[in-house]
Structures are given as C-alpha cells and as structure tokens.
Amino acid sequence: MGDRPSGAREGWRHPVPPGFAWPPGYRAAACFTFDVDAESPILFDHPEAAGWLDVMSHQAYGPRTGVPRILRILDRQGIKATFFVPGYTAERWPDIVRSIRDAGHEIAHHGYLHEGARSATGPEEEERRLVRGLEALDAVAGIRPVGYRGPNWEVSYDTPALLVRHGFRYDTGLMDADHPYHLAVSPEPGAPTIVELPAHWGLDDWEPYNYLPGITGSGVISSPADVVARWTLELEALVEEAGLFMLTNHPFVSGRASRAAALEQLIERAKAIDGVWVTTAVEIASWTASLDLPSVVHDRPNLEAPSR
Ligand SMILES: [Zn+2]
Known about the structure:
Distance between the termini: 9 Å
Bound molecules: zinc ion
Helix content: 25-40%
Number of strands: 10
C-alpha cells in the first residue's frame, strides 16, 4: 500500500498534500500545453485516411496554421508552453517543430504515431514506440525530451517504469489528483519514482470542439466563449485549492481563430491572478522532484480481493 496524495486518515482536512508547496511567492500553477497531433492519431486509428485529402487537410491545419498562431499568442503574452509532439509529426513537419524549439518552448514526447498504450501487445511494443518517438525528435530537432504524455491519455501499469528506464523525469496525464506528485513505478518497496503532473478530460479541447464526420465528435461544436468560461471556472477553483491547472490544447483544434482568441483571454486571466505560476511542465516537474514527498503507488486492482 502506498500513500495517496491526500495522505493519512486526517488528510482530508488539508487540500494540499503533506510535503507539497509551490515555490516561494506562488500559491498555484497554470501550465498551457499543446499536443501537436496533426495527422498521427487519425493515421493510427484509420490508416486508410492517408488517401483522404479532406481529412488530412483538417489535421494539417495544426502545423500549417494553428502552431504559428499559437506561437504568436505565446510571444505576445510572454509565456513559455510545453508542446507534446509525436515522432511522426516531427518527421512530417520538421520546420514547424524546429520553430517551436527555436521560440524557446519545451518539446516533450507524445508517442511515435500517437499509439494508445491499450493497443500495445505488451511492454516490449510500448518500449519500441517510445524509442522510435525519441529517435524522431532527436533526428529532426536534436531534442531529448524529459516529459511524456500518453496518446489518448492512455497509460499502462508498465508505462512509468519504461519512462524511468529511458530517462524521462515526468509524465502528465493521470487523473487522480489536483497537485503534482511522486509516482512510484511499481508497488515494490523503494521503487523509483517519476513526477506526475495530473490532467483531466475537462481541460482538453478535443471533446468540446473537434468534429470529423465518422471519425470523432458528435457534430455539436461548442462556442469558444462557453469553453473558456468553463476552463476559467476550473482555473479559479484550482487556484483556491493551491492546485495545478494543466490545460491541453491541440493546434489543429484550438489554433482556429476565435478559439485561439478565447485561449489568449484565458492566458491573460491566469497571468492576472496574484500568485499563479504560469510556466512549462518541465519547470513544474523539476520543482516537484526537489520536494520531499511520499511516493504514490498505483496498485492494479485485484477483482478477486479489492484492497481499498
Ligand atoms: Zn494527442
């Protein structure tokens, strides 16, 4: 049994887990991230779409139009962001990926062809994909990422140990906490840890906005005003809880004009709240790694004998 982020039996009285604190002068953090999926998730799930120009053009909007617009917004706002880039995206759009790097933003790992962990036959296949993504980012941009986000947010019980084996320092995508924590890679006593930066589907732009007939979405496309109002509620509530606001946008989705404009308003709001640390995932991970925190163990449920 490991410690949960809420700590011991009386932990419910305190919103901030034992041992956790933000750097001096800060009371919460906001991290703006962009998953540069481009064609990769569609090609992984629907290889036949490689022959569909309409669908490929929808995905190409990200690197061709969305990324430059987002880079302009981040430059105007004077903040740094984290871009999760599948290896295939780097190979297909090398100059775009280099432009993200050259603008000083963090580039992190997001699979090779955006392969969800549940599609892997086992840890060997997961590892092959991880390595192929690393090789692509290195070859295209000379980048050795230290952060990882599972495509489709899919993470297996093998993933954390693979990340540690390949020198990663953080994962972002588990959904069990409001604060960063030290994730034990296995239930073994003394197991190594990696920093986890928790996220949530509610802070992802894919669900409210994205629609590709027959592939994803219902066809009901939300107003950017409504989406950003919802995200602002979560930002303000998480600040009161001293938590981490981890927002995930996709350049092919939120790079569109009115969505990007609304996102810029949200960035302005985050910057305007006193004590909010607006920074990259790697900065938050480095800070968290420096803290003396209990390891959080995720036990695989045993259907025969529930342990919790
Ligand atoms: Zn993705």
